[in-house]
Amino acid sequence: MKCIRWGDAYFVIDGNHRVSVARQMEVPTISAYVTEVKTRVPLSADDDPDEIICKARYAQFLEQSDLDKLRPDADLLMTFCGQYRLILEHVAVHRHYMGLEQQRFISEEEAVASWYDNVYQPVRCMVQEQGILRYFPNRTEADMYVLLAEHRAELAEVLGWAVSPETAVTELAKERRSLLQGLWTAVLPPLLDSGPPPGSWRLDRVSKRPSGRLFDDILIPMGANPADWRALDWGIAVAQLGQSRLLGLHVVDEENEVDNVFAPEVVREEFERRCAQAGVAGQFAVEWGSVATKIVARSAYADGIVLPVNYPPETVAERTVSGMQVILRQCPRPILTAPPGGVRPLSHALLAYGGGRTPAEEALFVAAYLAAHYHIRLSVLSVGDKIQTNKALARVRDYLQQADVPADFYAEEGEVEEVIRQTAVTTQADFLIVGSFAYGPLRAVLFGSVINRLLPTFEKPILVCR
């Protein structure tokens, strides 16, 4: 008998009938001439034909890339075995940009090693951290790399923006989850939906980001209103502070398009001109439909939003359908309001801290981050009775001390929004940081909220965190 050995698998060339007889007689061994094939990807005795083909393709990929020699622990075995050409294309593109960035010749070996370390490995880590493979049984981490690359390309085509790997991983996981909607969703109309849980934005995006930065991408809704350009000016100031990218969005309201004197392309050109003039990275997209709904949907792909202040309506009926209220309640990201007047430096923040609620804790987290990373002076205000404010401020002191962030503390009594206004003037704060709505959607609509009562008269930006 003659056979070939590949790993732990044997392929009979001559003598199949002898093997059959030996099996029928339950003979444990048989004499044979064995030719051993040296390969970079060994087979196992249990491999089926599909697995054999995939391993053969993987072995061919290793011959072309030498990845197993450059990174011995690497395992890029795929079930999408026709996609190794895509990985080789990614390596070639990575090599090209390495050469441009470093202004020198990059060898194939150096490009492969750099791609694996700086492109593939971060995606692999995100896949592991988010447990993506449990939604894709029988797939490998290398399969997920290819799938996520395709998903990023699809998202970029739909959104009109380049999409980060973190966003692609998060969105792919969301698409695979089956979430049950409860009675509250059935009873509440969409405009009264309270949006995602507080703090979800940080879990979705920032915790998966290698840089750890809070505001990499900032959404700037743009339209014909001069206030929209004011929002862009504030967005540019924030982007320059944190090296952020601005994502411009123009929503064409089909019902009111006649009143829109700015064509989308005109808005795009002005947006791109201002970003280029300020030296800020920016991308622009156009959507059709309800302005508030599209802004909320797009905000999931950003880290924050800058909105011009459109003062909240006075009546309950108007508040129910107000676009600003829909965005404030449902948006899953922090929102910075852009008040009338010119852009001013954001060097001193006033944190209005109530304590005990997740939105307040998110506001504290953001305030500490801004103070620590951008050297912003921080003042903390708590309004209520003495016992309540002392307890709240003690919590903040401990948190900020652990983060090594200095702050001034103020405990006051009185009507919350009025005390906030007065303290902002007294401390000469440049902007206010608050948590999102303290009450449920129905109560906030019926009776208003502190945020609603502050917006009409507060002359400085408000950063609303959820």
Summarize the structure.
The protein contains 19 helices and 13 strands. With 466 residues, it is an alpha/beta fold. About 8% of the residues have low confidence.
Structure description:
This protein has 466 residues and is α/β, with parallel strands linked by helices. It has four domains: 1-38, no CATH class; 49-172, no CATH class; 190-311, HUPs (Rossmann fold, 3-Layer(aba) Sandwich), CATH 3.40.50.620; 344-466, Rossmann fold (3-Layer(aba) Sandwich). The chain is built from 19 helices and 13 strands. The chain has helices at residues 16-24, 49-65, 67-70, 84-102, 108-130, 141-159, 165-176, 183-187, 200-204, 226-242, 264-278, 291-299, 316-321, 323-330, 358-374, 386-402, 416-427, 441-447, 450-454, and strands spanning 2-6, 9-14, 33-36, 217-222, 245-252, 282-288, 304-308, 335-338, 348-352, 377-383, 408-412, 431-435, 462-465. It has a ten-stranded mixed β-sheet, sandwiched between helices. The chain has a three-stranded mixed β-sheet with strand order 2-1-3, with no helix packed on it. Strand 10, helix 16 and strand 11 form a beta-alpha-beta unit. Helix 12 (291-299) runs parallel beside helix 14. The radius of gyration is 29 Å and the shape is elongated.
What fraction, in percent, of the residue positions are helical? 40-55%
Radius of gyration: 29 Å
Structural class by sheet pairing and helices: alpha/beta
Q: Low-confidence segments, ≥5 residues, pLDDT <50?
A: 178-194, 315-321, 438-448
Integer count of domains: 4
**End-to-end span in angstroms?**
72 Å
Number of strands: 13
Mean pLDDT: 81
Major sheet: 10 strands, mixed
Q: Tell me the fraction of residues in β-strands, as a range.
A: 15-25%
- Tally the helices: 19
User: Rough shape?
Assistant: elongated
Largest beta sheet: what is the strand line-up?
6-5-4-7-8-13-12-9-10-11
